[in-house]
Amino acid sequence: MFSLDNRVQEYAWGSRTAIAALLGQPPSDRPQAELWMGAHPAASSCIELDGRKERLIDAIAGRAEAFLGEPVRARFGAQLPFLLKVLAADQPLSLQAHPDEAQARRGFDAENAAGIPLDAPGRTYRDPHHKPELLCALTPFDALCGFRPAEALREVLELVAGGPGDALVPRGAAPIDAAAIAELVRGLLALDPAARRELVASVVEACRTRARGGGWLARPCGWALRLHELYPGDIGVVIALLLNDVHLEPGEALYLPPRRLHAYVRGVGIEIMASSDNVLRGGLTPKHVDVDELLRVLDFAPWRVDPVTPHRVGEEFVYDTPAPEFRLSRVELEPGSAWRSSERRGPEIVLCTRGEATVVDARGTARDLRQGGSIFVPFASGSYSIEGGGQFFRATVGG
Predict the structure, then answer these.
(1) 205 appears as a binding residue in the annotation
(2) DSSP string, 12-25
(3) Which EC number(s) does the record attach to this protein (predicted)?
(4) Which listed residue (266, 281, 330, 394) is catalytic?
(5) 98 labelled as ligand-binding?
(6) 133 is in an annotated binding site
C-alpha cells in the first residue's frame, strides 16, 4: 500500500477554505477547486516507491499486473480506469457535457490529426476516453443537470415566450421532445451577440417576477438571477433554466452519464469518474466553447433525475452505477472499531474525510490515514482492514 501525494487544482470557481480545511491547512489565498487522486496524466498523484518519489501513472505502467490485477489490465489496459476528486464549488461551474466513448475517440483522433497541441486553449478533446461521473455530497450541494421533463419545460418556456426569443418556443400542442429541445438550444446558441443580450435581459426580468411569486419556478429563477450576476448577457443563463435543478444533502449522490448537459452550482462533494478530462462547454465561462461539437455530442432527451441512494452492507454504503470504470462506497466507523474489505475488484483508493485510522493489508503492511489523506491499495495487496473511526470513501473498479 502507498500513501498518496495529491495535486490541488486551482480554478476560479473554487473555495479558499473547503479543501484547505480538509487537509488541515489555513485558508488559501487562491481558489482551490479540486483535489485529484489517481493516475491521470494531467495531474497524477505520487507515491514513494523503492525510496524515491514516483508518479502513480508511471508506477502503474511499469507494474500493471501487480498494481491493477490481470482482469483490470485486460479490460482497461495498463492504466487506472477511474479518477477520484474532492470538488469544492463556491461559484457555479460552466455549462458542460462529456462525450461518450465513440465520440471521445473520434474527437481526439481528429484533433491530433489536425495538429492541435494537447494544452492548446482551443483544444476540446484531451484524451480518447468518455467521462461518466458520480458526485456524492459532503455538504448540501446544488447542481443543474439534464433537460427537464416536457411538462416542466412548458412552464419554463413561458419565461421566454413573448420576448426576443418568442420565435424559438414550441407552439400549442407541439411535442417537447429531444428534437424540439435540440432545435431550441441550437437556436439560442445561434443568436447574434445583440440578440443574445436582449433575450437574456428579457428572461432575467421575467425571472425577477417569478422569483418573488413563489412556486417551484422560484428556485430555478433564483439561480438564473445569480448566474446573470456572474455572466451578464450570457445565453447560458437561459439554457440553464431548461435543466433540472437538483439539491443533494450530505450522503446523497448524483450520477451523470456521458452527453448530459450540466453545471455544478454550489457545495463540496466527492466525485469519481472515468479517468478523463474531456469537457465540452456550453456557456457561463470565458473558456473555449465549441458550439458545433457540443450540439453533436449532447443528448437532448428530457430526463427525470433521481439521486442515487446507497445500499448498506454493514458499515459500508455502496453507490451503484452502470459505469464499468468505477464504483464508490462510503464506510462509517465508530471510534475504536474496524472494517474489512471482502470483495476485491482491483486497485483501490481509500480517502479519509473525517477521523483517523490505520489501514492494514493482507501482508501486514500498515499505513496511518488521517482526515484529507488517501492511500492507494494495489491489487496485489489483497484484502485490507480499516481500524479506527471516522468517514472513509472507497474508490475501486465497477462491475
Answers:
(1) no
(2) TTBBSSHHHHHTT-
(3) 5.3.1.8
(4) 281
(5) yes
(6) yes
Q: Is-same-fold flag (2-144+247-297; 311-396)?
A: yes
Other beta carbons within 10 Å of 358: 13
pLDDT digits (tens, 9 = 90+) for 3-17: 999 999 999 999 999
Residue holding cell 478533446? 125
What are the domain boundaries of the chain?
A: 2-144+247-297, 148-243, 311-396
Phi and psi (nearest 5°) for 21?
-65, -40
CATH architecture for segment(s) 148-243: Orthogonal Bundle (1.10)
Q: How confident is the model at residue 257 (pLDDT cuts 50, 70, 90)?
A: very high
Statement: the pTM of the whole predicted model exceeds 0.85: yes
Domain 2-144+247-297: CATH architecture, name and number where available: Sandwich (2.60)
List, for residues 155-203, the tens digit of each pLDDT value: 999 999 888 888 999 887 789 999 999 999 999 999 999 999 999 999 9
Is 55 an annotated catalytic residue?
A: no
Q: What span, in angstroms and rounded, lies between the C-alpha atoms of 159 and 138?
A: 34
